[in-house]
Amino acid sequence: MLSIAGPTYFPIALVARLPFAMMVVGVLTLVVTGRDSLAFGGLSSAMVGIGSAAVGPLVGAAADRFGQRRAVLAAGIVNSLALLLMAWVVFSPLPGWAVLASAALVGASAPQVGPMSRSRVVTMITTKLPEGRRGRTLLSMMAYESAADEVIFVFGPVIVGMLATTMSPAAPMIGAAALTILFVGAFALHPTGRATDQHAAGTVEQAPARELRDPALVTVVAGVFGVGLFFGFTLTGLTAFMRDAGNAEAAGLFYGVMGVGSAALALGSALLPDAFTLGRRWITFSLAMVAGASLIAAAPSLPWLVAGLAVAGIGVGPTLVTEFSLGAARSPRGRSATVMTILGSAIILGQSLASAVNGELAERFGTGVAQCMPLVATLIVLSAGLVNAGLTRRQSEAATRAGEGEGDQPGPFAT
Question: Which of 81, 314, 323, 356 could form a disulfide with 46 if both were Cys (CB 3.0 to 4.6 A apart)?
Answer without folding.
Answer: 356
